[in-house]
Specification:
- This protein is of the alpha+beta class.
- It is built from nine helices and 19 strands.
- It has a 16-stranded antiparallel sheet that branches. The protein has a three-stranded antiparallel sheet with strand order 2-3-4, with no helix packed on it.
- The N terminus is likely disordered.
Length: 363
Amino acid sequence: MIGFRLVRILAALALAAPAVPLLAQPQEGANPAVWAGEPTTGVLTHRATGATFPAAYGIFKRSRIVALAPDGSDVAINYDAQDGETHTRLSIFLYHPRPVPEHGLKGALAAIAARSPQAFVWADGPFSIAAPGNSPVPLRAFKGTYKTGAGPSAVMDYLYLAELGGWAVKMRATITKVRDPSQEEAIDLIFRQLPWAAVLAANGECRGPACQTKGPAQFNSHMVESMLPAVLAKRIPFDIKAERNLPEVARTATPPLGEAVIRRSTKDPLVYFTEVKDLGAFRLVKLPANVAQMVDGSFGKISVEGPIYGVAIDSAGNLLMPRFFAGEPTPAQFGAVVRELVLHSTASPFVTVAETVAAMPDQ
């Protein structure tokens, strides 16, 4: 998530905090100063943006309307769905970003960690939204899937976040007793069908992280991380002596273990190589084309396209692959991942959301 974080920090610095404070207590119901329309069974229109929200998205019925700021600059709408034994609750938030934790990615994840302390990262990364009618480019939002438990009692938590600059759209969803990927696909579709054209028109120039659709995107995948290293360890021959003589292209600080030299290879599948004292070798390798199919599997679908690259750690003969990129990262981006993994022990297929939050920089 390094790429998302850098753009997010720069966008936050460019924004001035709105003068209207948040309410001490959420204001329940469709306040006429904030909403237009029929609150029980009709379409509601958010006055500040012109964004419309129906009484239902298929089986998802609108169940709660909340204003968190008196001028409508921070609102939320809940929808609930019952599909057999499976219950889904989703909350859609539309707001002017403020310097409060819950408005950023780290704070949103911290809320999931507080609610579901055993939840681990199943998958997270870019989530594409087709270009709305008034936008020349598509959006690249963030989507995270987090799992608690296993089998028919498993609970799946989801976070979607699109920061546009002037406005941000966040969606939280929890599915209990999930049984089929189509139940996740239903909430994917709702997020993609939100009134993006109206929100973008109110937003003005699109300058937030979701507007940055070019360049490599970092992602995580429990399935790929669990299955791929053992296969690659047998198929990719590494020659650490030769790699130590590759040309230097950058350096990265790895406190408290000093500085690591990043070297570049011109021979696939190796791209970058570095060593960190006492921890082992870190490599960026280009992965087989069919890896994208593993990411686009059943649950936790994100929007990644090849070529796919993995950050591999060879420590005492154990091969780990805890981070991935869609598109080739720069030496600086590779170095940032190495530094993060040195500072925080998150090189595991079972990293909790709480551990992920602890490893993220303050916003």
